[in-house]
Amino acid sequence: MTRYSATAGQQHWQFDDLKTLLAKATPLRSGDCLAGLAAESTRERVAAQIALADLPLKVFLNEQVIPAEIDEVSRLIVESHDALAFLPIAHLTVGDFRNWLLSDQATSDSLKQLSPGLTPEMVAAVSKLMRVQDLILVASKCRNETAFRNSLGGQGVLSTRLQPNHPIDDPAGVAASILDGLMYGSGDAVIGINPATDNYSAVTDLLKMLDDIIQHYGIPTQSCVLTHVTNQIEAINRGVPIDLVFQSIAGTQAANDSFGINLALLDEANQAARELKRGSVGNNVMYFETGQGSALSANAHHGVDQQTCEVRAYGVARHFEPLLVNTVVGFIGPEYLYDGKQIIRAGLEDHFCGKLLGLPMGCDICYTNHAEADQDDMDMLLTQMAVAGINFIMGIPGGDDIMLNYQTTSFHDAQYVREVLGLRPAPEFDRWLQQVGITQPSGKLAKRMPDQFSHLLQSLS
Amino acid sequence: MKTPQKIQQQSIVNENPWQALRRYTDARIAQGRAGVSVPTEALLAFQMDHASARDAVHLALQVEPLVEQLQTAGYETLRLHSQAADRSEYLQRPDLGRRLSSASANTLQTYRQQHPQACSVALVIADGLSSMAVQQHAVAMADAVLGRLKNRGLSVAPVTLVTQGRVAVGDEIGERLGAELLILLVGERPGLSSPDSLGIYYTYQPRVGLTDAQRNCISNVRPAGMSITMATDKLIWLIDESMRLKCSGVTLKDQSVSAAKVNTHKNFLLP
């Protein structure tokens, strides 16, 4: 096919099909090299971007990167496409689309109206042409608000997931991290534990414990234990208190298979949790996690680059109107995102693409010890994400997850970025922090520990 | 101009009065704050822990001392290398770390020509993601388990040491040595507070192309984690069971009698 080609000077490049073009146009990352999909040279990469910029957006409606016949995610994307919403940009190329997104015509409202008319592949394509500042600028125009026991994603709000993980799920160990986090104003997005085991009774013990704490202190937030969706459906059926249903999702049916899930199962979980009506100000009940490279690591990528696969996962997520979507960007390791530069770019791409598709995007701004990254890289990504208007980040004592053995953002980090950019927690949670004396009306942390909590310490010694 | 006041030392950092909770968790709680930021001492403690983890990944394994220690303990050794040329390639190309270089494949072929009689047990030491773990704990672990297996009358192939090696490289080594049982010791992905964690993988009838489903893993072997004695007991139990059932991996459940139930503590946040 000559449809996908570009010329620069004496050299001419041809790309076999849409997925090849998308892969070759992707900014360098180790996962695409590992998959054998990356551009062979820097010039070939830019040539692919030039060819991609000339491509009419309509092409994405006619050519699937993974055939709908073999993939239910492709079917969902095709069937849920809103042609009317797409109409205003139906005549544009990918390059035009970038210009329009950056223009004053693309407002918060017009982006919201457009969102159902976009497919994940269109959004992935335009992101590949964008610089970091483009990804930040356009994302900052999107406001995707959701609610359960508080209102997330509003202008000027930056929320945090309090992640009190412990290697053996010791109740006091978990509680110690929860207290530490609350005293730093963390936990408005969710108090969410990665359990040390998937053992059903251990998981339900944690669910009950979190629910008891939230009720006892009247905290306007929601809880979650990040175990397999089938465990959570089982728990709902047995009357265990479940606020949010968590699941890792990916952008291909085969990758979701490897997670032991499919769209019908997610539907079932979403319905079951909604019927509980446990939210007080809203009823978004799903919490999804994603990350570039997951499809490749399950050998389920069908020759599609890892960033496009990731955005297809957002195509899955938006179908369920989740409360939270978290791209766990640096967790997967250097064979997919090699260093700080690749992690930072991937995180901002994920945030931009998710926001454009209407999702309440958060990010686990993180790295492992075998990646070429450090705290400085995380500070850069954290600051850029907050400028881009991210809905939530993680919060963990000192940034060190002693259960999952990786580093993510700390309670202090969230306070830093709130202070620098004048951001606040979710309004209901913000009021609670002031009522119990954790923060001052200015939002600054109080000097003293509130008596209600310091009294707990006396019984320890 | 008014004489500037000396800053009160104790007013700079806001300490957190819940330090007593550290008895329940190794998490970095109650660090205090300078403004909203991490105080200097806690910051540098973190940086040192990260440096240890980075060095564990990047400092090359010193093979020579390991060879000497193993020979002193009475073990023959062979030195091997994977197809990954260096650490950077190793980190980005997991596939290359799973196969032997052609020179190393030849080494094993030559060895087999000279020793046609297959051995029962092959023990592989691979650097993996923590040279520190291997440098510090691999010889003691190897000696503990091979001593027990020799007492059972099993024949043991030379201990192989693989640089830039991943877990699956053991399959090729075991197959080339014609071994029935494969034990692989490997440096695990280092955590911030566990840079020296050794992993043990056990496979019955190893051959190229097996997946994790055919392996049993014992993780977190280090002084502050699982002791070498405990890991040896578990491994010997797995080996005995696997020889009885003629399999390894998910079909071989670890039902070894575990240590006493771990003590947990009550959630103090609730009455």
Describe this structure in words.
- The complex is a heterodimer of chains A (461) and B (271).
- With 461 residues, chain A is an alpha/beta fold.
- Chain A contains 22 helices and 14 strands.
- In chain A, helix 7 (94-102) packs across helix 9 and helix 9 packs across helix 18 (340-356).
- Chain A is globular, with a radius of gyration of 22 Å.
- The termini of chain A are far apart.
- In chain B, 42% of the residues are buried.
- The chains are: A alpha/beta (461), B alpha/beta (271).
Helices, strands, pairings?
The complex is a heterodimer of chains A (461) and B (271).
Chain A: E1 4-8, E2 11-15, H1 18-24, H2 30-34, H3 42-53, H4 59-62, H5 72-79, H6 83-86, H7 94-102, H8 108-114, H9 120-128, H10 132-141, E3 146-147, E4 151-152, E5 159-162, H11 171-183, E6 190-193, H12 200-217, E7 223-225, H13 229-237, E8 245-248, H14 253-258, H15 263-275, E9 286-290, H16 294-297, H17 306-318, E10 324-327, H18 340-356, E11 361-363, H19 375-387, E12 392-395, E13 400-401, E14 406-407, H20 411-421, H21 427-435, H22 451-458
Parallel strand pairs in A: 5-6, 5-12, 6-7, 8-9, 9-10, 10-11, 11-12
Antiparallel strand pairs in A: 1-2, 3-4, 13-14
Helix pairs in contact in A: 5-17, 7-9, 9-17, 9-18, 10-18, 13-15, 17-18, 18-19, 19-20
Chain B: H1 40-58, H2 63-72, E1 77-81, H3 87-92, H4 94-97, H5 102-114, E2 121-126, H6 131-151, E3 159-163, H7 169-177, E4 181-187, E5 198-204, E6 215-221, H8 228-245
Parallel strand pairs in B: 1-3, 2-3, 2-4
Antiparallel strand pairs in B: 4-5, 5-6
Helix pairs in contact in B: 2-6, 6-8
